[in-house]
């Protein structure tokens, strides 16, 4: 009857990582998924902690994590585990041929599509703009027909962000993709997966290479697979080629997703697609199975251990259909929520103050098992990871994938 | 639960799911047709957006014609939007005021054609001869059918004809087999293998002459009213069997998906949901037996290295890949999943002349994966996927149930 040692629910970054680390522990793992997960919607760089509670810029995430409040997931996970999780991820990406760089000691800076420099902790080479200082010959590269990339906005803001002395030129690359629908970053990336695409791209940019410090800044289009496309163009041009974060679909998120799925396949993780988990079957404080919705009928999956990675408010893992009544949709776990409707939101969307609703989520013990308001353990073999966790605002503090990574790693080891 | 929560949770018909779309683009990243064809505007814009914004009668989105109904978008969607079904509903709407081509008429009505053929003495032989002559004379190409492909040949005897000759042990445990057009007319050996497998598990297999084609070829070609008639007929038959406590099982994943789920999504009638509950895909059924400890695992040695292409319409059913697990228990069998996306055939899509190239481009990853592997045979639950694999790779293919029949020594 038992399907797995460990059953992971959800295929966002947290779910995929939890499955990977569990399988790496030689566990038999089943992953239940509903929808393709969040990675096509997120840049695929790993923000650990960009800003503290007062919205001060964090220079060293390792130091700043130590002063987070006790209810913050990192405080529960513990610094040592966060470090191990980061190392695990760096090793994994290197082994699978798309190495990430960075550490907990300082931030990397990733150029965004609107020309700001966003702090992050781990990123692949092609998104790491840390070395940009504004003195380089930066050329902003748009793609003809790609509407979701605004070269002129990028140009103005980046000059400001980097204190550049001169205006960075904007150039446009032609592709054979016009004449159909509006093109997306994925369309361009797929073109750059081909040899003709790469060569055409490189030859169109070659005239703009000046001196030995030219940097081309492009939307997220440098191939759908790992780093080979970026490396090829870099080599061809003898100039740095960097990507910005941009609107979804996120090519880099998809690169990371592809790599994680390949690893799960290599480790014989069973992935069940298109199945929404509805509820749990439990025996006292132990969950024995979960009931999932397949086409027309339900199917029960039994396991020793369950990792909840269905996401928070944005992905329906937690819903708040009525104020004061948040609901975790599978195990009906107690959910922490800011009380008082007036504390729910901050009308100034881009201000330096957090949103009250954003910390909504499940509270856990230091093993990441769910607890109620009196800190009583609810289930002894359920572990909560990623945005299902309460007590942090990933958007405000830039910690989304960092909490996902560290909590997934910890939950898998427990 | 308050009324509003209930309302949100219970929005089940395809049309109401359009309002769940957040325009997140997950479907666009997963759509194989978008990858192959730059004119297709993609599931997000065509399905949910156009369904909601379609206000005037002649406001049609031309690129809707590119959708193959492979349902990759439905599986990618984090919000439960029935994207592909919204596309099919719009396609049907279009054909309310537009003429169908002769080609679409032919591709949608394979069942009608097969009935004609079976009514004639040596009908299958002549029809096959006719098709190869027709092909060499370019008649099909002129009609808009992909001249590069051969039309699937009719088997000399249909499954229903062969079934009459099968001697089964009587049993109280019974299932009704829904062969579907392709197994009935083109690959009856799959149905025969199914009967053997069920017999080996102590089941007697029944058939129901009153079943129609499930309607999948009609739905994807925009003949929705006719599909509705098929649904009404099949649903009333399934409900009869349900009353007797006898489940209906299909070996074709597009048939099982249609009977279980798509009728209800398309036509939103409660009886369709009730009937769907009595329908199983073959390996779904066998896995349920295995979970109860009732699957006969007295397997004989079958030395085969298998590559498994899991059809899109199986993935959409959300019960995982039970055939891979069951066949892995057969001594001497190894099963590797191809995991190379959609094959590109999508029922009658790849037969359309103007879709042939797209279809082959989509299938390229799978073809390469199969060509590079050292497998003895490719297994796949879907008949038209198997045709595409044969066409794209010349590999030997069969339905997983045929391997299982071998394992039972039949």
Give a brief outline of the structure.
Chain A: Keywords: Flavoprotein, FMN, Oxidoreductase. The complex is a heterodimer of chains A (414) and B (410). Chain A has 11 helices and 19 strands.
What does this structure look like?
- Chain A: InterPro entries: FAD-dep_OxRdtase_2_FAD-bd, FAD/NAD-bd_sf, G3P_DH_GlpB_su.
- Chain A: Keywords: Flavoprotein, FMN, Oxidoreductase.
- Chain A: This is Glycerol 3-phosphate dehydrogenase (Quinone) subunit B.
- The complex is a heterodimer of chains A (414) and B (410).
- By secondary structure, chain A is α/β, with parallel strands linked by helices.
- Chain A folds into two domains: 240 residues, FAD/NAD(P)-binding domain (3-Layer(bba) Sandwich), CATH 3.50.50.60; 132 residues, Rossmann fold.
- Chain A is built from eleven helices and 19 strands.
- In chain A, strands 1, 2, 11, 12, 13, 14 and 19 form a seven-stranded mixed beta sheet that branches.
- In chain A, helix 7 packs parallel to helix 8.
- Chain A is globular and about 70 Å long.
- The mean pLDDT of chain A is 95.
- Chain B has 410 residues and is of the alpha/beta class.
- Chain B has four domains: 92 residues, Alpha-helical ferredoxin (Fumarate Reductase Iron-sulfur Protein, Chain B, domain 2, Orthogonal Bundle), CATH 1.10.1060.10; 42 residues, no CATH class; 131 residues, Glutathione S-transferase Yfyf (Class Pi), Chain A, domain 2 (Up-down Bundle); 111 residues, Rossmann fold, CATH 3.40.50.
- Chain B contains 24 helices and eight strands.
- Chain B is globular, with a radius of gyration of 21 Å.
- Chain B starts with a helix and ends with a helix.
- The interface between A and B is large, with 39 and 43 residues.
